[in-house]
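Journal club prep, notes for RB
We'll compare a predicted complex against what the paper describes. Inputs for the histidyl-adenosine monophosphate case:
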Amino acid sequence: MVRAVRGMRDILPQDARMWRHVEGTIQGVIASFAYEEIRLPLLEFTELFARGVGEATDIVEKEMYTLADRDGDSLSLRPEGTASCVRALEENGLLYNQNQRVTYAGPMFRYEKPQKGRYRQFYQIGAEAFGFAGPDVDAELIAIGAECWKALGISKHISLEVNSLGSSEARIAYKEALVAYLSPLKAQLDEDSQRRLLTNPMRILDSKNPATQALLQLAPQLPDFVDAASKAHFQQLLKMLDVLGISYKVNPNLVRGLDYYTHTVFEWVTQDLGAQGAVCAGGRYDGLVKQLGGRDTPAVGFAVGLDRVVLLCELAELEVKQSADLYICVLGDELQSKGMLLARQLRKQMPQISVRLHMGGGNFKKQLKRADASGATWAILYGEEEAASGELSLKHLRDASVGQVKLPVEQIAQRISSKS
Ligand code: HAM
């Protein structure tokens, strides 16, 4: 048997209901803020991510699924959605003289070491806003996250961390100061941090290594390098969050693993999923549109990691209510096609209820066993007697007190809706 590729998961029928609930809820919240859907390709030119996400980031350096197209072009499966979103809007002239607030959803691909909450194919729902320079839209995007957790009933498992990286000039000055401080101490850094000192020094702040963290105690601090305008933007954002009643922690070590961020960055984190604590992350990327060849356009967004939110909902033992459904037991070969007509009629009468028709024969006892195992709430018995009398036997499978009654087909819908 050929098996699934490592890090690529199946979402099985018993789990798909929770996925649909989580996706539907988050997309519903984002739509309620009037963000419009954009659908983006899974494959892009590798160059888009190299230039967008950054050559020296872990993602581009070692995590992309890259392949050569037949004509030799280098293509990559998208590791994230922001760069594609910028490309699509710019390519279609949608950033010219207008603002945009868009949302996308779908699988992303990163060749990471798989573990709980970390997969090589994982799912994001993202929201991005273009053309707004003020902190109000940063606050709006954070508020969308807060509304999502509320709507899902998982707010108490998630907290918000925010930081400001300052302008790109401030970041460069800070990076230089950090490298100057850490270079003489290189031998004492963990292996990953030694490599990052050359490629992506700010990511060293993220290191979980205690010795490295100890060295960072006396390192130059990012907030000391952040420019005044960016500080004012950040303070205004924090005030707005206060007004919105959204609690946060300012984490000066929050730097993010993608190169395009400037000013505000944020992460929604949980303690309940071990090392994979970030369930949603984002920030401002005012320089990216220009860097990819467009005009200077302020932009900010986030992406929710759906795999982790689903895990969290399962941990929180969130119950997703299953809509009532109906199993039709049909006796005898002659009635099988009439059973299909009956199912069609009932689906039309009750579009909110799924109707499953028994197939494969057997007596009513065996069919009722199947009905029970299917999880259906109701069963209908349709045999010679019912066909002759025009009255169907309707049985509640989950509540014996409702019992079994005989009814003409026209009254089935009413009975189901009053007793479900
Ligand atoms: P990111 O932090 O790389 O940011 O990913 C966002 C979220 O996707 C993470 O917080 C996490 O929940 C989830 N995620 C990332 N990698 C994996 C994985 N291997 N397995 C499971 N879940 C994962 C971005 O992708 C940016 N594009 C976010 C953004 C949008 N910034 C501005 N706009």
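Talking point for the session: The chain has two domains: 13-167+227-315, 326-419.
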